[in-house]
Amino acid sequence: MAGCCGCFAALKPRYKRLVDDIFPVNSEDGLVKNNMDKLTFYAMTSPEKLDRIGHFVVIAMDALDQLLVSCHSHSLNLFVESYLKMVQKLLECEEPDLQVLATQSFMKFANIEEDNPSYHRRYDFFISKFSEIIRTAGLRGLQGIVRKTITDDLQVNIWENVHMDKIIPSILYNMHNPDFMSVDLESPKDEEHPAYIAETVFRDLICRASYGNVKSTLRPILIHIDNHQLWVPNEFAIKCFKIIMYSVQQQYGYLVIQTLMSHLDKHVKSDPSIKTSIINVLYESVIISAGGSIDVKRILKLLHVLQMFCNILLIVFHTYWLTSSCIRISVDNKSSEENQRNKEKKFEEAVINTIGEFANNLPDYQKIEIMMFIMAKFPQFGNEDLGFGTMDTQLQTMLLKTLLKTVTMANTFPPEFLQPLLRISLLEDPIMRLIVQEILHTLIDRHDNTNKLLRIVIPKDISQLRLMLEKVQRQDSMFMKKNNVQFYWSILENVMMESNKVDNFEALYCTMCLISIEMGGDDILLELLRLGLDVQQIALDNHLPLTHQCAIHGLVAAFLNLVSQLMSLPPLCQYVSEVIETRRREAKYLLPDFAFNRTNRPTRYSSIKIM
Q1: How remote is the C-alpha of 453 from its chain's centroid?
Q2: I need a labelling partner for 509 at 20 to 30 A (CA). Which of 146, 157, 369, 495 fits?
Q3: What DSSP state is assigned to residue 464?
Q4: What is the pLDDT of residues 251-261, one digit of tens each?
Q5: Does pTM surpass 0.70?
């Protein structure tokens, strides 16, 4: 019978006999070396047989896969070590088809849930090898590693730097490789594309990160973006952090923002475009973070992050502004100077929008805290020494614009916020004074009347303005009675500023009208009437430019027209109307149509005399 078997064996093709002969009697002995040499020589001299020889590997791997799936979970550990050695051997070979075969098998293994912990199993080789194998096979392998190891504390800790430094760059390379970036990732036909798979693995990794591991993943991501100069343009960086913010567990979102801010701090001396890009990435991340449900703990975390963020941004902005100022001094080329200013503008907008977005979804009382925090950054009002010396006007303007972006409430006017804000309204720069008035508009306006009052006009009936008029709330009336002197003093001082432009006068008019509408009880309206007359007296008593005198008279005429109708006193309304009509006939330059006409030239004022 044995002889018969030998006869049948002799009938096998030579390559099959050579393959059979490499297997030892005892598995511990390994391959039969002499027979393996014979098989190798045969393969070299008959390369057309290689495909058939390799098919035995596929069959062997298929057998291992079936055994793997069939094993009961409690006995799986007894088999896995032998199985993983087989997978490792296939990955070590240079044949791509065999590497893909090994990866596919490993993915099947990764999807098996094991009941018993594995005390001695190591995946270091697989992490390194899958990270080296670019595109689909390597990415699928990394996905299997993540799924297999992340829930088992006894297995390799893939969050360690040594592993993250291999896994993250491999994933990101496939995501931003130019060959892949043009693919339409939304299309189902691209689900096997490496870019699509890389993004899937990336999301899978981020969503599994616990509190202590979030920063472990972010560190190599930021290093990769830095090393490959992916901040400018920043489409890829924004895409990465959008994926992160949507994938990370919601309660850990602030850690991402915190890490980005720390990274911004490291780039204080970097090119302005890089800092702008990082802030834009922060902005997109904040939008996503703020979009979730707001709870007390989350608010406190965001506020803590905001304070850190403001401090970093102020230092970054100040450093940037000093640098750009030096550049402006040395720049002779007009186009270069314009390009520099465009960079500055983009940077300012990025800073303002990002801080504003932090506050956008918070309740009013938290916005007040944020406003007070920003206000404290002005050296004349805060106790903090930021090391800036005398703060640059541009930096103060940026802070005010940030404040304007932050102020979005319509229910409460913080009294503790009023006095420092009104003091800022007296700074020399007209742009800063304008921004302060815009902040006041946002705080005072309860019924969206601001846009209807930005242009100074004198309608015969104020109903033509389509203002939303409701009974003044008691709390607003009480607030105004307590603080009216501060408001009036600020308005009178602002009117006298010789650096005022048309925009400044229009903003002051809007402020006066909003106070009358939103806070003007009977007693307050009477005081406002007196304020209007006091403003008019400024034009008569002070040696202001003629343009300013005309503007003040025009402002007062429009304001008294509105207040008299709000007070519903027919004799007063008639008197104001008669004065306005007299001016239309004899002194049009004392009315808004002339005084606030931006096309006026100095020659139009040459014949005017105001007594």
Answers
A1: 34
A2: 369
A3: G
A4: 888 889 889 88
A5: no
